[in-house]
Each structure stands twice: as C-alpha cells, then as structure tokens.
C-alpha cells in the first residue's frame, strides 16, 4: 500500500532517492518486485472457507448483531482500489508483515532528463510546421500514426515530464497486513462502539486456515500494538511531509480510505 506526497522543489539534496526504513531494510529484490497481491480466485476461495467455518459464522453473526454487517459481501477487487471488507479479510493471510519505508525522490537530480523535454518540444514543433516533413525510420510502434494525434501526445508527454522531473516526491510503503487489520478494527469500533477483538481474531484465524497459511497471534495487546503502530506511522509521516512542504497542518490519525467506496 502506498501513500504519495509531493512537497515541492525547495530542497537541495544530492541523493536521487533516500530510503528511510522505520524498522529494518528490505532486500533489493523485494523492492524491485513490489507488493504481491492475491488473485480474485484466491480471495473467493478463502472467503468461502470463512463462511463455511462454524466459529467464523458465529463471529460474523455477533458482529452483525452489533452493527457491522459483512456476511453478505464477497471479494471483488484484488487490486484494492475499491475493495469490500470481504477483500480485506480474505487477503490478510496472503499479505506479508513488511516494515514501513519512506522513499524520497529529489527533483534536483532529475535535471539530466531535461534534454528529453526539449526533444519532445522540438518534435512537436516539427510536426506542426507545414513546411517540414517528419518520417519515422524504424519499424517499432508502426501502429502510432504521424499526425495530429501524435503531436498532441508529444505535447502532453513533454508537459508532464517537465513537471515530474521538477518535483520532490515521496512514497510511503506501509505494512500491508497490519494496515488491513488496523482498519478493520477501527471500523468495527466505529460502527459498534467496541473493537470486538475476539470476533475479529476468530474470523482472521478462519481465513488463515482456509488459505492453508500459518495462523496469526492476535490477542488484545497485539491488536492494540498493531493499531498504535499504524496510527503512529501515518501521523509521523504526515508531520514529516508537511514539514518538508512548509505546511503546519497535520491530518487526523484516521483511515485515508473512503468507507463510502466499499459495499
């Protein structure tokens, strides 16, 4: 899961990318491969297993009576752009307990790419010149036609790249598994007035068994610690980024997802 912030271009740092691990440094291969998300088939298989589990069924019924009704849901978005709570629960066994990292990218070191912007601007002008003829001397991308559409594409690319290489920006990579667990707990407490840790643990444990994965040890103290760390990560990150951007306001320590998007 990623949180993007663009603090402007007022810093003068020499490093193009500065990675600040909050717990420990991940391997270079993990950073290159990115986060591995389960497939929709895997999510549906796990959720069906949860619904068939007698203890999980009773836990879901107790949550429904308390005001958190999710038994009727089903997974539908393995990309997590617009997930349901069923996606959350079914995905937890597959997500790793990764350290939180902040990756800073400085615009100053991107100046070497300015010639690309100039080349795109020149290409756009040549296409627009009625007394110039532009011919492509390559067999690559033959489906892209030379003409008005390509001129617009070149102009748009130049505009975006010109802005992008001037940005200072940051990616905050949160702990995937803990982020889902913490948000589930926040929402259960918000809708029912209590965290219902016993029911939450029972449902997650059933999901782990359905996925044939090792169970998670989630007592009250562990869930408190998970929620505290996720909250602290968001507050500290927002404070650091606001400081870099010259802002004073720090967002409230709450979920950044829009609950209205879930079904």
Structure description:
With 263 residues, the chain is α+β, with helices and mostly antiparallel strands. It folds into two domains: 35-100 and 174-247, no CATH class; 108-167, no CATH class. It contains nine helices and four strands. Strands 1-4-3-2 form a four-stranded antiparallel beta sheet, with helices on one face. The longest helix is centred in the last third of the chain and has 26 residues, at 220-245. The protein is elongated and about 75 Å long. The relative contact order is 0.19.
Number of DSSP strands?
4
Count structural domains: 2
> How would you sum up the major sheet?
4 strands, antiparallel
**Poorly predicted segments:** 2-32, 248-257
Number of helices: 9
SSE diagram, text form:
Layout: E1 2-8, E2 17-21, H1 28-33, H2 40-52, H3 54-66, H4 85-91, E3 101-105, H5 114-128, H6 148-164, E4 168-173, H7 176-192, H8 197-210, H9 220-245
Helix pairs in contact: 2-4, 2-8, 3-8, 4-7, 5-6, 7-9
Which structural traits does this protein have?
49% helix; elongated; 2 domains; 4 strands; four-stranded antiparallel beta sheet; alpha+beta
What's this entry about, in short?
By secondary structure, the chain is of the alpha+beta class. The protein is 49% helix and 9% strand. It folds into two domains: 140 residues, no CATH class; 60 residues, no CATH class.
């Amino acid at each position: 899961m990623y949180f993007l912030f663009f603090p402007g271009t007022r810093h003068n740092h020499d490093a193009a990318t500065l990675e600040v691990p909050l717990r420990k440094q991940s391997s270079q291969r993990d950073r290159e491969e990115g986060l591995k998300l389960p497939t929709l088939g895997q999510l549906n298989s796990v959720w069906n297993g949860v619904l068939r589990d007698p203890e999980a069924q009773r836990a879901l019924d107790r949550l429904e009576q308390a005001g958190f009704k999710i038994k009727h849901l089903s997974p539908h978005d393995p990309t997590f752009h617009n997930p349901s709570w069923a996606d959350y629960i079914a995905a937890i066994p597959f997500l790793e307990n990764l350290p939180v990292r902040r990756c800073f990218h400085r615009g100053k070191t991107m100046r070497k790419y300015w010639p690309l912007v100039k080349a795109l601007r020149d290409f756009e002008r040549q296409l627009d010149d009625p007394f110039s003829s532009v011919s492509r001397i390559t067999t690559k991308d033959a489906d892209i036609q030379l003409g008005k559409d390509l001129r617009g594409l070149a102009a748009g690319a130049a505009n975006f790249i010109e802005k992008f290489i001037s940005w200072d920006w940051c990616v905050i990579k949160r702990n995937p598994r803990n982020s889902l667990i913490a948000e589930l707990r926040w929402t259960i407490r918000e809708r029912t007035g209590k965290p219902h840790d016993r029911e939450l643990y029972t449902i997650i444990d059933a999901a782990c068994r359905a996925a044939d994965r090792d169970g998670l040890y989630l007592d009250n103290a562990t869930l408190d610690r998970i929620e505290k760390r996720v909250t602290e990560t968001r507050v500290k990150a927002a404070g650091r980024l606001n400081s870099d951007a010259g802002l004073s306001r720090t967002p409230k320590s709450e979920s950044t997802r829009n609950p209205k998007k879930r079904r």
